[in-house]
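B., you asked whether I could sanity-check this one before it goes into the benchmark set. Here's the sequence:
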Amino acid sequence: MTHCHTFIQALRNQGYRITPQREMIIETLAHGDQHVSAEDVYQQVLQRSKAINLATVYRTLDLLVERGLASRFVASDGKLMYTTEKHGTHLHLTCRICGKIYQAEVDLLIPLIQQIETTTGFKADFEHIALTGVCQNCCNQNLSELQKG
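And here's what the prediction gave me:
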């Protein structure tokens, strides 16, 4: 069974109706190899069917997140980005200057997550973590500019 059919079957088993629009949205997200915005999904589905609207895309993506089949994060430009759980736990480092997104090992955060749980009793979901800052390249460029001036 393909990845998208697993999602569709999981939703059916939970009593959700799978409309043609919902199926196309799930297929688009499940077969993608990168993070996408709702607008990206909408544009891709729109190429297959005119019987789609952005609100349906958002509702379906929210349902997938709620049911644990997908995750979302806020990108540096403020857009909500979505990916399926097939990507596994991962950490993104987003440069607020150039916008480049770097992957990092999530293991770096395990001590912090454990400390949060120990001190507060809060169990964090860390399937998808995104941190914003300044990449080494942009730091070096800014340093060079300061040294010139």
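One thing to flag: The domain at 1-87 is CATH 1.10.10.10 (Arc Repressor Mutant, subunit A). Otherwise nothing jumped out at me.
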